[in-house]
Each structure stands twice: as structure tokens, then as C-alpha cells.
Amino acid sequence: MFLFGTLGLPEMLLILLIIVIIFGARRLPELGKSLGEGIKNFKKSVTKQEEEGGDDSSADKK
């Protein structure tokens, strides 16, 4: 079903090594923090939109 099959431990370690080489070990915490904040803001906006009534397209049709 997957295009390249499943990812095992060796593949994950290789991906992590490439990321460390590209970005450097010092920038990884910054990247993780930025990614976490982005995910948190996305979840907050989705939750807020669901509480307001879901789809905003119904308001545009009035």
C-alpha cells in the first residue's frame, strides 16, 4: 500500500542524521519549538472554528 514500504529504525536514523547535517544540532531545538507552536496554533484555530459553528461558507451564502 505504501509507495516505499514501512519505515524502520535504520531509515528513521538515516533521516535524523540528514536533518542534523542540514540544520545543525544547535538549530534543532529552535525548529522543534517553532513546529510545536505552529501545530498548537493550528489546533487552536480548528477548535475555535468548530465551536463557532464549523463551516464559514454558510455565512458567505447570505
Structure description:
The chain is 71% helix and 0% strand. The protein has 62 residues and is mainly alpha-helical. The longest helix has 25 residues, at 28-52. The chain is flat.
Protein topology:
Elements lengths: L8 H15 L4 H25 L4 H4 L2
Q: What's a concise summary of this model?
A:
The chain has helices at residues 9-23, 28-52, 57-60. It has 62 residues and is mainly alpha-helical. The chain is flat, with a radius of gyration of 19 Å.
Radius of gyration: 19 Å
Shape: flat
List the uncertain runs. none
List how many beta strands DSSP finds: 0
How large is the share of residues in beta strands? under 5%
Distance between the termini: 44 Å
* Largest sheet entry: none
Our count of helices gives 3
The H-and-E topology, N to C, reads as HHH
Report the helical percentage.
Answer: over 70%
Keywords for this structure?
62 residues; mainly alpha; 0% strand
